[in-house]
Specification:
binds adenosine-5'-diphosphate, 10 helices, 13 strands, seven-stranded mixed beta sheet, globular, binds magnesium ion, alpha+beta, four-stranded mixed beta sheet
């Protein structure tokens, strides 16, 4: 299979740019096949762009299910759009593959396009090269002019919220890395709590609908990719504030509590990465408005603290400081 056949078979056919039924592909004047795509936004919208790379052995374990790799390549980028309150529109895929393997490509593109269809985002171009397995997805979204949510709009006193149950993905990844195939054991009889945690790593759900609902309500927002404490700290710093988090309020999933004691669960929740939940702030006066908007969003949110004037991140339980890793992941730190 050559490069052009590969693109045609696995990416152009599934691009969905002509399937306007789900809103996908609208505004595509020219998609895959030319030297570049030509895209059109309504005049009252602004373009929101983000790109993220996944490298085998760094962002996902070697031998990870290709369907999950395809899902995550797009999900981590949709999460960035969600954090800005943007509507997903188009994406580009730069894929580096060791070999053109039909089995891998089929499952990878299935995972990728299943999520693309769910969010009505159309693949409009890319690049395909040979080399160690890695991929960059660039997403393009839009917001009504002036309505993008940034990290920097928070003020001291604003309430700090997080969606979902952060920590599950990191706990799931830990179990994935430790999972040894047991001789004679049936893979399907894996403990359902462990399976749940692993799926939170393998198939994160970008909080696009929540991000959209937060437009005009949240003062600041960030997506939790590096760990809740690290990312909440970044939001606070960008807003010129500190943050105070009450560890007793951290939302922990039943699966997490079934597999880990409270201390470990708290550490996963604060320090674990790869959740792709949203962490955001809301002025107290807008709390009722937030609750009303959330009625239409299928996603739990929890108030875990507030922004404060003092420029530091304080995490407490019953008034006593809680230790945790607040640094997040750094590809180029000496520890990394
Ligand atoms: P060029 O040499 O002009 O960059 P390419 O041969 O790389 O063109 O790509 C041909 C067409 O296929 C372009 O429209 C490009 O956007 C698209 N394309 C290449 N790889 C992918 C991919 N992995 N997914 C989607 N579109 C792709
Ligand atoms: Mg090219």
């Amino acid at each position: 299979m050559g490069e052009f056949e590969l693109i045609e078979r696995y990416f152009r056919s599934g691009a969905g740019t002509r399937d306007a039924s789900a809103g996908g592909g609208s505004g595509v004047l020219l998609g895959i096949g030319d030297d570049a795509a030509v895209l059109e936004l309504p005049v009252d919208r602004q373009l929101v762009a983000a790109i993220d790379t996944l490298v085998e052995g760094r962002h996902f374990p070697a031998g990870c299910a290709p369907q999950s790799i395809g899902h995550r390549a797009l999900a981590v980028n949709l999460s960035d759009l969600a954090a800005m309150g943007a509507d997903p529109r188009w994406f580009l895929l730069a894929l580096t593959l060791p070999a053109a393997q039909a089995g891998f490509l089929e499952a990878f593109s299935e995972g990728l396009f299943a999520l693309a269809r769910e969010h009505a985002i159309a693949l409009v171009g890319g690049d395909t090269t040979a080399g160690p397995l890695a991929m960059s997805v660039q997403v393009l979204g839009s917001v009504p002019a002036g309505e993008a949510i940034t990290r920097s709009g928070g003020r001291a006193g604003d309430l700090l919220f997080v969606s979902g149950t952060p920590g599950d993905a990191a706990a799931g990844l830990r179990h994935l890395m430790q999972a040894q195939p047991v001789e004679g054991a049936d893979a399907d009889v894996l403990d359902p709590d462990l399976q749940h945690l692993m799926n939170r790593f393998l198939y994160p759900e970008p909080r696009v609908a929540l991000g959209r609902a937060l437009r005009g309500i949240a003062s600041a927002c960030i997506d939790v990719s590096d760990g809740l404490a690290a990312d909440a700290g970044r939001l606070a710093a960008a807003s010129g504030c500190g943050a105070s988090i009450d560890a007793a309020q951290l939302p922990l999933s039943p699966a997490m509590l079934a597999c880990h004691d409270a201390a470990a669960a708290t550490q996963f929740s604060l320090g674990g990465g790869d959740d792709y939940e949203l962490c955001f702030t809301v002025p107290p006066a807008k709390r009722a408005q937030l609750e009303a908007r959330l009625a239409n969003v299928k996603c739990r949110v929890t108030c875990i603290g507030r922004l404060v004037e003092k420029l530091s991140l304080q995490i407490t339980r019953d008034g006593k400081p809680v230790d945790c890793d607040t640094r997040g992941y750094d590809h180029f730190s000496s520890a990394g």
